[in-house]
Design a protein that fits this description.
eight-stranded parallel β-sheet; alpha/beta; RNA-binding
Length: 385
RNA sequence: GUGACGAUGGUCCAACGGCAGGACGCCUGGUUGUGCCCCAGGAAGUGGGGGUUCAAGUCCCCCUCGCCACC
């Protein structure tokens, strides 16, 4: 079920709390659980749209805040909307700017009506409200818009989190009342920090509203990973069954698996692209720091188990020794190959997770994969399915 | 040959006669709704020999090497 025309969420199979589903969008189906690469300003950094397509990504994320400031939503619309602008033919989700309200804390003043802040680009004063965020996202032309929310930091006191919840609920209602694009879905966002009671209370409020999907926000914002897993274990399976569940800003291979096991359908994170640019590759046997001296003469691929174009391409693999050389020499190709690998890897990881759910062995797949990655195996086991 | 100047981690440079620092490079980590091509930590040094001094990278002498100028 989904509310907006052109969208449909179809759960095919369940295994414990995890779900194998299809998110049908006006721009094609997306198999879930899925990972959405982040393309903040209209590009998944370092990669062409063709390359991202080849990683099997069904949906990518763009950012309202950044595109609004530069080049401006009207420019994007004039150049074909976000899809034509960036030459991305598949589904696209836009973040609302809520996270930037949090990450730009030093430059902002927040009130019940909205947020005022200085542009990080030219210092100009700007104002963002729930209505304005929806209008901008409508102009950008994304397939899925997010409500403007208040996202407190991981160490915020309980009363600050409760205030953020009240504000996020009020803003959610205002977003729903604001006209958006034709066939543009809108997702609500649940706050509540690492407090289970607050999470459940806010989930109830947001789930009661006619959103096409529900997201968990305010996680992966500095809290302990165990706290995030605890909240996932307590909250994810209580999110609406018939709508997509989106865990914002996550994450590591381990968090994607743990989240999928807890019942999450969608993830996004800068980690594969950012870490790639900083020399870290994600592999089936754990993280690889390509900068390490041990890779100097290594003629093996980043990941022997990977079937991607970097490890097993037509022209042969990129060796670790070559990638280390490119990285240390600050060659652009290092960032490109590492990014392509990491995005492809997370795509493969989610594909394998979907396969495991289909076979009813999600939990053992996660346990074995985490062990091979040496990422720990304290999987949040479902207590009642 | 004569004279001037110089010699400090791998490299390029700092340091009043008073705890030898920095940049780059190197090594090791980190990065979770992108203000991140970034951040943190670490290893590594006074050309050689004598002298003055409580104390010398620093002042004096000799050697070696470099560099410049002039025969």
């Amino acid at each position: 079920m989904m509310i907006t025309d052109g969208f449909r969420f179809e759960v095919h199979q369940r295994d414990g709390r995890s779900r194998l589903a299809t998110l049908h969008t006006p721009r094609g189906p997306v198999a879930t659980p899925t990972f959405m690469p982040v393309g903040t300003i209209g590009t998944v950094k370092a990669l062409s749209a063709e390359e991202v397509l080849a990683t099997d990504a069904g949906i990518v994320l763009g950012n309202t805040y950044h595109l609004w400031l530069r080049p401006g939503a009207e420019v994007v619309r004039a150049l074909g909307g976000l899809h034509g602008f960036s030459r991305w033919p598949r589904a696209m989700l836009t973040d609302s700017g809520g996270f930037q309200v949090f990450s730009l804390a030093k430059l902002r003043t927040l009130d019940d009506d909205g947020v005022s802040f200085r542009s990080h680009i030219d210092g100009a004063m700007k104002r963002l409200t729930p209505e304005e965020s929806v209008r901008i996202q409508a102009t950008l032309g994304s397939d899925i818009a997010m409500v403007l929310d208040e996202c407190p930091p991981g160490d915020a006191p309980r009363d600050a989190i409760e205030r953020a919840m009240r504000r996020t609920t009020a803003w959610a209602a205002r977003c729903l009342k604001t006209p958006r694009g034709e066939r543009q879905a809108l997702f609500g966002i649940v706050q509540g920090g690492v407090h289970e009671d607050l999470r459940l209370r806010h989930l109830e409020e947001i789930a009661a509203m006619p959103f096409d999907g529900v997201a968990l926000g305010g996680l992966s914002v500095g809290e302990k990973v165990e706290d995030m897993h605890r909240i996932l274990d307590a909250v994810a399976h209580r999110m609406p069954e018939d709508r997509p569940r989106y865990l914002m800003g996550v994450g590591t291979p381990r968090d994607l698996l743990v989240g999928s096991l807890a019942g999450i359908d969608m993830f996004d994170c800068v980690l594969p692209t950012r870490n790639a640019r900083n020399g870290q590759a994600l592999t089936w046997t754990g993280r690889v720091n390509i900068k390490q001296a041990r890779n100097r003469l290594d003629d093996g691929p980043l990941d022997p188990r990977c079937d991607g174009p970097c490890c097993n391409g037509q022209g042969g693999r990129y060796t670790r020794g070559y990638l280390r050389h490119l990285f240390l020499a600050k060659e652009i190709l290092a960032a490109r190959v590492m990014s392509l690998h990491n995005v492809h890897f997370l795509g493969s990881l989610m594909k394998a997770m979907r396969g495991a759910i289909a076979q009813g062995r999600a939990e053992s797949f996660v346990r074995e994969t985490l062990r091979a990655m040496r990422e720990g195996d304290e999987v949040a086991a479902p207590d009642n399915g």
